[in-house]
Recover the amino acids of this structure.
């Protein structure tokens, strides 16, 4: 319930801080993530994502380690990240 | 991404276990209050690696588990109303109410949809203006800002067909309840890493000071938890009761200020009933009056229910670390993850369910 999955910020949309969102890459699976709580996040940064929101920025080594751990314990699917499937274009959440 | 394995490296883990063994001269009882941490501790059998005397007990750390039976029944009621689309995180669908769960409600024809973000529920509302879209807003402080943002954005957009059934609980009041109990056994806490990512840890410093109990904010991987345990044992042996931050790669003292701001814009602190424990004063969140139009309890004019928990269930004692799951006569017999009697058995992150999954044959 309180897990958070690390991903890489690809491109950012929106100027208004409350509606700023980004396409985030989770080892090949791309999702739209709200950046309202990480105004400091920039393209190329790694963020921890919980229920569609980035809650903190972390460094790349930490991101990869945590991602592999979540994959190992089978926790990614619970967060809606199904590896190995081609990512579908998503409607950008406002 | 590069791969670094230090947080699961067995040699590093063993070195920390050895450190704990060298430090511990007395028995100590430690508790984690986050279900994600409970799951890791059980999965990797971390309690069994520790020196004899250092005991781990598992706290009430699963918001899915502690959502009251009444609210599950109300969710099932709302989901069955004509014209309603009921949306929820997947783990709530398996939680039994007093007669069925949301999966069964869906099988009976209710439009129940799993979402991964509250923003998905807002999108469904935007795309279905002729339907009432209800989101089951469950969680600790980690999830509350996201749920608050969904309500705030729905209001900004002027959506009139979106509402939230709120069951938000807060960690510090539950820790206080545990510490205030005359039969409390807990001497140190592993703090919840993602809750503190949002809230920071100044509230935990007050608890540490008031109750003279050390708290180490911890991460979720095996080595994170071993480090947190080692730091707690050192504090206890040295007679310190401070808050230390093992999970500094995500947690700062002040927490996430932007997330806290939207939380307090949309929610206010209120009394909340916890399944298996009962009502804890000022232990949860409720929508503010300005957001009443988005409160499913008010939109659907729900009457307060009072549903009794099965008497045999000792979950209140398990959730406060006073009994182990195995000490319950119903455990693994009349109470299993498929037929749970009470809170800690209803979700994989609950203490009884984790025990059932990983330690039942031990």
């Amino acid at each position: 319930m309180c897990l958070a999955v690390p991903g890489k910020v690809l491109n950012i949309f929106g100027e208004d801080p409350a509606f700023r969102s980004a396409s985030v890459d989770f080892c090949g699976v791309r999702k739209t993530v709200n950046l309202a709580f990480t105004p400091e996040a920039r393209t190329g940064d790694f963020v921890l994502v919980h229920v569609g929101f980035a809650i903190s920025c972390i460094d790349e080594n930490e991101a990869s380690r945590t991602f592999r751990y979540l994959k190992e314990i089978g926790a990614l699917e619970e967060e809606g990240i199904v590896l190995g499937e081609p990512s579908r274009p998503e409607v950008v959440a406002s | 991404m590069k791969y670094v394995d230090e947080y699961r490296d067995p040699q590093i883990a063993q070195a920390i276990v050895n450190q704990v063994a060298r430090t511990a001269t007395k028995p100590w009882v430690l508790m984690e209050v986050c279900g994600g941490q409970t799951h890791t501790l059980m999965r990797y059998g971390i309690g069994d690696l520790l020196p004899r005397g250092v005991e781990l007990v598992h706290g009430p750390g699963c918001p899915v588990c502690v959502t009251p039976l009444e609210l599950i029944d109300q969710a099932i009621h709302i989901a069955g109303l004509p014209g309603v689309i009921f949306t929820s995180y997947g783990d709530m669908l398996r939680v039994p109410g007093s007669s069925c769960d949301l999966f069964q409600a869906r099988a009976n024809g209710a439009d129940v949809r799993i979402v991964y973000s509250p923003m998905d529920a807002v999108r469904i509302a935007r795309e279905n203006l002729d339907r009432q879209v209800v989101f089951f807003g469950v969680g600790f402080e980690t999830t509350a800002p996201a749920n608050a943002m969904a309500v705030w954005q729905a209001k900004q957009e002027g959506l009139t067909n979106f509402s939230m059934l709120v069951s938000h609980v807060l960690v510090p009041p539950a820790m206080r309840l545990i510490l205030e109990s005359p039969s409390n056994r807990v001497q140190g806490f592993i703090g919840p890493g993602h809750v503190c990512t949002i809230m920071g840890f100044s509230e935990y410093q007050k608890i540490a000071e008031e109750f003279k109990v050390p708290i180490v904010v911890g991460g979720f991987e095996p080595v994170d938890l071993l480090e947190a345990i080692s730091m707690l044992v050192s504090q206890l042996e040295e007679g310190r009761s401070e808050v230390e931050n093992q999970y500094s790669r995500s947690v700062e003292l002040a927490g996430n200020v932007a997330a806290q701001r939207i939380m307090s814009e949309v929610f206010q602190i209120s009394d909340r009933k916890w399944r298996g424990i009962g009502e804890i004063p000022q232990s949860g969140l409720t929508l503010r009056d300005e957001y009443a139009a988005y409160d499913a309890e008010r939109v659907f004019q729900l009457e307060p229910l009072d549903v009794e928990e099965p008497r045999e269930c000792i979950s209140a004692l398990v959730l406060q670390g006073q009994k182990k799951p195995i000490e319950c006569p119903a455990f693994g017999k009349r109470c299993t993850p498929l037929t749970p009697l009470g809170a800690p058995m209803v979700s994989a992150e609950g203490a009884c369910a984790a025990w059932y999954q990983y330690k039942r044959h031990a």
